[in-house]
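Q: My labmate handed me this sequence with no annotations at all. I'd like to see what the chain might look like in three dimensions before we decide whether it's worth expressing. Could you predict it?
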Amino acid sequence: MAWLRLLTIIVISCLSKVHPQLQSGLDLGSLTRELLHSAKEPAFFDWLKRVRRRIHEYPELAFQEHETGRLIMSELESLGIAYSWPVAKTGIVASVGSGVEPWFGLRADMDALPIQELVEWEHKSKKQGKMHACGHDAHVTMLLGAANLLERKRDELKGTVKLVFQPGEESYAGAYHVIKEGAVDNVHAIFGLHVTPELPTGTVSSRPGPMLAGSAGFQVIIQGKAGHAAQPHTTRDPVLAASLAILALQHLVSRETDPLEPRVVSIGFVQAGQAANVIPETVSFGGTFRSMSNEGLSYLQQRIKKVIETQAMVHRCTATIDFFEETMRSYPATVNDESMYEHAKKVGEYVVGKSNVLMMPMSMGAEDFSFYSNKMAAAFFMIGTRNETRKPNYGLHSPYLIIDEDVLPIGAAFHAAVAISYLDNHGR
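A: Here is what I predict for the chain of 428 residues:
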């Protein structure tokens, strides 16, 4: 019967590779039930809501998250969790666990948007012209909730969880600066959540591989020679040059890109003169370009520069193009590692139920979580916040955005369960 024992060993070994849970011995069902139960306890849930509402009332823009940072550090200190500050100017990176490898990352962004909140409620933004219209207040709260849950299991963690409270996601590439400072150098893999009012509370969505586009911006100044509209031959018309350059840019997608590869170039503004009978000296315009691959983004940047400069030259003008490479760094594409995606997906099926883990279509929107996904194994998931009893439901970056706070314990438990099970599968 030696052959039967050998066959049994081989089968168990193969199953363990397919289902790390069998290898680790972790009961993921029990773990997620315990975490969700703890996060939904009235005292815990009330604490989550208080934290989220405090952050919501005092929104801060990119790299100005001073009050938000102080609140985070205060909560971490009350939990007995060590942290490093400042990271990337206003960020915080905390650690829970054994202090040894493997190290697993959980990330939440902290910054708000320059939007005036128009939702009338008790905890409306108290800062004129600033609002958490992208749900980062919920992100921070869910990660603090996960910190609380993880601290309760500190002695059971088979490694270390790094909690990354990141500044400057909105256009300022805060993730890039966190990485540049070495704050996540030893992190093997990372997980992030982003709220979405497009999905009902109690659902999550993502996809393996490319998920969100890489994105970059540009601004152009076309320099010509001004003159009267009655004598165009004495001018060098920058309006004509700019108009034809903008039209030519659209051909970069329609005639230079594989139709099966998503790319887009969009012009968002054009500014010229003020008088109808005067040809201005300069025209400025700008926009964004996006691709689901980093190679595609690089190609578009090179061709945008060439097309604009050539069109300007044809019309006897000159062009200056600024890609904001120093001030507003371009975002690479967000690409989910397939193994990490499968891991988080499996956890999500236990947290919210298999039917509530959805396949997300690719989106040309961008997120600076992409910098982490370009450095390490990463998985980024969307988590629903739509409450069907509230009509209408507004999208992200809307002054009318409402977040269903029932998402907070779900997100906290999801974060914690992904981290604990990852360490259990990869720890020694």
